[in-house]
Amino acid sequence: MNCTIRAMLLAAAVSMPGSAGANLLLPASELIDGCRSYMTDVATEPAKFCAAYISGFMAGATNAGLLLSIEPGSSDAFLQRALRTRLGQSPRLPQPVYCVSTQVQVKDVVAQLLLHAEVRIDLQKVGAARMLGEVLREKYPC
Question: How far apart, in whole angstroms, are the C-alpha atoms of residue 52 and residue 33?
């Protein structure tokens, strides 16, 4: 439980651009290790950390206006109209970067993250938040 809360707070802090948590970079390699554990046994501490980190990142991105949850069956026209009418043209509001279906589960994001990690050679140099953001931008763009 303590690991879960810590991971969610860390993920939420580093998912927001310019936040105070920007210096608390978790190497992508550590997240990937936990996510590999998640795919084999979700009850382990590293697996729980992986799930909590991803959930926290997505919650932080949602709160920052960077992630938009999409109901299944909604059309692109509906999405564009919703973005235009709900967010307007105000420069103060961030435009969503990730548009994730409400049916997407943590295991789906973990699988995409692990696939992405196979082609990255700099897992020790890149932060977990940056890599997770890359995956969400690539697989769930708005």
Answer: 14
Token duo for residue 106: 């943590």
Average pLDDT over residues 121-136: 89
pTM: 0.69
Residue 34 has a CB neighbour count (10 Å cut-off) of 25
Alpha-carbon distance 93 to 87, whole Å? 7
* Tokens, residue 79: 């999405």
Tokens matching residue 61 = 């991105």
Q: How is the chain split among helix, strand and coil, in percent rounded to 5?
A: 60, 10, 30
> Would you kindly state where each structural domain of the chain is located, as residue ranges?
2-139
For 116, the enclosing helix (H) or strand (E) is: helix 106-119
